[in-house]
Amino acid sequence: MKIVLAYSGGLDTSVAIKWLKETYNAEVIAFCADLGQEEELGGVHEKAINTGAVKAFVEDLREEFVRDYIFPMLRANAVYEGVYLMGTSIARPLIAKRLIDIANSEGADAVAHGATGKGNDQVRFELTCYALKPDIKIIAPWRVWPFKSRQSLIEYASEHGIPVTATKEKPYSTDRNIFHISYEGGILEDPWAEPPAGMYTMMLPPEKAKDKPVYIEIEYEGGNPVAIDGNRMGPLEIMQTLNRVAGENGIGRVDLVENRYVGMKSRGVYETPGGTVLHAAHRAVESLALDREVLHLRDSLIPRYAELVYYGYWFSPERKMLQGLMDGAQTDVSGTVRLKLYKGSCQVAGRKSGRSLYHPELATFEEERIYDQKDAEGFIKLNALRLRVQKLLRGN
Length: 396
Fold this sequence. Notes:
Elements: E1 2-6, H1 11-24, E2 27-34, H2 44-51, E3 55-60, H3 62-75, H4 92-106, E4 110-112, H5 121-132, E5 137-139, H6 141-144, H7 150-159, E6 173-176, E7 181-184, E8 214-221, E9 224-228, E10 231-232, H8 235-248, E11 253-259, E12 265-271, H9 273-289, H10 292-311, H11 317-328, E13 335-342, E14 345-352, H12 360-363, H13 375-394
Parallel strand pairs: 1-2, 1-4, 2-3, 4-5
Antiparallel strand pairs: 6-7, 7-12, 8-9, 8-13, 9-10, 11-12, 13-14
Helix pairs in contact: 1-7, 4-5, 8-9, 10-11
């Protein structure tokens, strides 16, 4: 049997290599995706081999991640439950896709992941795998192995000579990529407790940010950001630049209690500096370029689109259909937005577009020749007709 394992180099997946080999008499192929987690990945290949993997793949997927996953999600203005920009959710389908790619190329019988049986990630990984390879066997060690705690994993690693560094457990768990970092569990499980003062990674605490506002300009073409302050950049460079600038100004933190797909509520704290800025900028360009009814129809579909991403249905036919609609609305979304970044706030300071539907002469309070204000009387009476009839006939 041959198994491709989503491998991080940490305690859980290092133990998983040995456990999978023993339990299934299998050859294990390790796969580690570099999605911008800012961890030293140079030794991951060697560590996987030393732990017992027959092969190990470490791939830099950052550009693809931003271009083909983050940007489409931002074009849809997707926000889960009105707050969460879904930095963890959007990473899972790409990792799972590459698991299946490697399984196909290596002739593997199964894939495995280190997600627990309580979280959303198990669903996201497995829905993607089944969508891309319906007959694939999926092994989720956390749902079947005998280990119930970090300490039991450490003991197993010690007994079997698995090279892991047993350090004191963090008081919370984190997951990071180029788009965000999440903090969950441990001391954060009390939703009344404020996060620790030092719990910042991608951004400064707002009170420690600069005392002077920073202005930046972001240029859009067809719904995608293409330049910052007049300098054209690729997707990854745009994300890296905005993470730095927004992070220095304390922008991008949210603290929420969210509804997991598996049925429970959980508390999460997230930092999404560059993504927060891009979300605000995109909305600003759209306010000029999108027709009212197109904007309102698209916005009515955002909660559904966001649910599909959060739940793990990236490769579903309904998400693909909605993406086509979202992207169809972006044809004229081109222009430039000026943003003011200051101590945790991101404010739109100006916007312009060659495809703008904003008509200064129509919008003015001064005298103009296009709009006849007397026309409003008939418009209001026609729209009030059903309200008047209801009151006349029913009295309620």
